[in-house]
Amino acid sequence: MGLTPELAIDVNNIGFRYPGNPDVSFSHLNLKVNKGERFGLFGPNGAGKTTLISLMTGLLKADEGSIKLLGHDIGKNKNSVNKLFGFIPQDFSFYHELSPVENLEFFGAWSGLDKQTVKRRTDELLTILGLNNVRDKQVQKFSGGMKRRVNLAIGVIHNPPILFLDEPTVGVDVQTGRAIIDYLLVLNKGGTTLVYTSHQLNEAEDLCEEVALIDGGKIIAQDNLKHLLKTHNQDNLEQMFLNLTGKEYRN
Amino acid sequence: MFKLTATIAKDVRILLRDKVGISLMFIMPIILVVVVTSIQNSTFQLVNKNKLSIIINNSDTGQASKQLIKAIDKIGMFKATQVTGDQSEQKIAEAMHQQDAMLGVIIPPNFSAKVSAKSKSVAGKALKSFGLEGDSVKNAGDVDPLTVYYNPVLQENIRLSVQGALRSALQLVQSRETLRSLYFSINEKELPEKLENEMLNNKTAINEIPVSKDGTRTTPNATQHNVPAWTIFAMFFIIMSLGGSVVREKVSGSFIRLKTLPTNYLVGMASKQITYLAVTMLQAIVIFSIGIWIFPYVGLPALNLPSDVFALVLVTVVCGWCAVSYAMCVGVYAQTQEQANGFGAVSIVILACIGGLMVPSFAMQGFFKSAANISPMHWCLQAYYSLFLEGGKLKDVLNNILLLFIITLLLQVLTYVGLKRKNLI
C-alpha cells in the first residue's frame, strides 16, 4: 500500500450560493491539492474561479461542506489558519501612497511577523524582485510591472506554506512575467504549494503540473497536466480549454 | 503591539502625504476662524463701541424739530450730521453715500407746528378730564411721520434698536410739548426749565452685568464665540481626509487583503481612531493658540481659555472622537471617494447649521430647534460655550459629554454593522 501524499488543500463537498445571485453557485464541489504542488485553476470568465479562491482563503464562507488548509478548518481559528497561506489578488491591493518598504512593514506586521523579521524579509524580497533601487519611493509612481512585484512581495513576506495567486502576471511585460514565474518556481522548490489562476494559458503550462478546469461552478476536469492533455488528445492547454468550455462569449 | 504601531505609522504616513486633506483640515478652518471672527468683531464694534452715522434733513423751522435733533444726539448711539436741501429719496441716498452714513432721517415741514397742535389737543383733553377749563379742545391731526432711510447691510436687530431710539427721542419731544401746554393752561406762565428737566429726565439707571458660572466678569466677544465654534467645525471636517481614506482602502482591495491576514481589522479601526483623534487635538491646539497669541496682533480680542482646563481637554477629546467616528461611519457606507467627500462636506455644513455654529440655536424656531439636538456639533458647542462664555466647570458640561459619548458609541456600532454587512471584517 503506497503512502497518500499530505494534502495542502482539501475542499470537501462544499455548497455555496451568492445571496440573490444564482449565476455562480457550487454544489457538492470537491478539490484536493497536494502539499508542494503547483496547481492551476482555469476557467472562462464567470466560471467560479475567484469565488472558489475566496472560499479557500476565507473571504467567503461555504454554506455547506468544509475546507481545510494543511488539516486546519478554514472557518475556525482565523488567526492561526491565515498564517498558513499568502494571497496575491489580481488588484494592486496595497497602499499606493507608501513606498515598498513601508507597505512591507505594514503587511508584515499584519502577517504576524516581528519587527526584525519584517526588516530582514523586506531586504531579501526587494533584492530578489529587483525593487531595491526604488525601495523608498512611493508606489503610485511605479510602472504596472513594478506594482505587480510589490503585490507579490507583500503576499509572500511571511513565507506562507500555501500561496494563492489570482492572475499574478496580468498586464506586465514579458520580462516581468518571466521573472515572476521564475520566482514562483523557486518558492515551490522551497516547498510552497502554489494555487494559480490565470487566463494566460501558455504561461500556465510552464508553471503548473496539476490543473483543474472549472465551468458553471463545476470542476469539469482535473489531473496532471501532461496526463490530461494526453487523455483529451490535445497538444496544449489552450486547445483543451476551448474544447472543454466551448468558444462562445462568456460574461 | 507592533501590529498597532505599524498600522499607526501607515496611517500617519498616508495622512502626511495627503496635502489636500491637510489643507482642508488645518488651513481652511484657520482662515474661517480669522475671517468670521474679524467680521463679527466689526459688527460687535459697530454696535457696541462705534456710533452709527446718521444724516438728518430738517425741513422744519420750529423748536420741536431742534429738540428732536438734540434728543437724537443725546441718545449716544448716533453720530448725527445735518444736511439741507432736497428731500427726495435719490438726494438722501446720495447724501448718505457722501457722508458714509448708515441712516438718514427726514423731518417733515411743519413738524413743530403739528407737534404743538397735537400736544395742545392732548393737554386740553387731559384738563377736561380733570374737570378744569383750559383752551378749547380741538382735535388735532396726527403728526406727519418721520422717514428713516437705511443702508441695507444693517441687520434687522440693529434697525429695531434704531427705531426704538428714535421713538424714545420723539416721545420726549412730544411729552415736553404736552407738559408745557398743560402747565401753561393751568398757570398761564412758562414751565420752569429746572422743573421740566426734573419731570422729563429719566434718572433711573440700568446696570448691565455679564453673569458667569465662575463669577468672572469677562464680557463675551467675537473671539470667545467663534474660536470654539470653528474648532468644532474643523474637527468634523476631518471627514474630507478620513472618510476618503476608508473608501480608498475598500476600493483598492486593501480591506479584502487584510481580511486574509492573521490580524483582526479592529486593529486597523483603532489605529485610524488614534491617528485622527491626535489630528483633532492638534487642530484644537493650533486654533486655540492662534486665538490666544495671534489674534491680538491682527486687532482681534485674545482668546481666554476657561479656568477648568481639565474639562476643556475632556470636552475636546470627546468632540474629536465623535468627529472621527462620524467620518469613519460615512467612509464605511460610501461607495466611492466622491460620495464620501460630497456627502461628508454637505452633511458637516448641515450639522453645523442646525447645531448652532452658524446661526445661534436659541434663535431657531420649531422643528429646527428640536433638530439641533440630533447634531453632535450642537452638544460640542453647548459644552464649549458653557466653558468659554459662562465660566462653567466639569459638572456643568457632564451632560453634554455623556450625550456626545452616546452619539459616538452609536456611530461606532453603525460602523461595525456596515463593515460586517459589506463582508469587510
TrEMBL record, chain A:
GO terms for molecular function: ATP binding; ATP hydrolysis activity. The lineage of its organism: Bacteria, Pseudomonadati, Bacteroidota, Sphingobacteriia, Sphingobacteriales. The keyword Nucleotide-binding applies. Keywords: ATP-binding, Nucleotide-binding. The keyword ATP-binding applies. This is ABC transporter ATP-binding protein. InterPro entries: AAA+_ATPase, ABC_transporter-like_ATP-bd, ABC_transporter-like_CS, P-loop_NTPase. It holds the Pfam family ABC_tran. Residues 9-241 form the ABC transporter domain. It comes from Mucilaginibacter glaciei.
UniProtKB/TrEMBL annotation, chain B:
It is a multi-pass membrane protein. GO terms for molecular function: ABC-type transporter activity. It comes from the Bacteria. Signal peptide: none annotated. It is found in: Cell membrane. GO terms for cellular component: plasma membrane. Pfam families: ABC2_membrane_3 (PF12698). This is ABC transporter permease. The keyword Transmembrane applies. The keyword Cell membrane applies. The chain crosses the membrane at residues 20-39, 227-247, 274-297, 309-333, 345-368, 397-419. Residues 20-416 form the ABC-2 type transporter transmembrane domain. Keywords: Cell membrane, Membrane, Transmembrane, Transmembrane helix. InterPro entries: ABC-2_transporter_component, ABC2_TM.
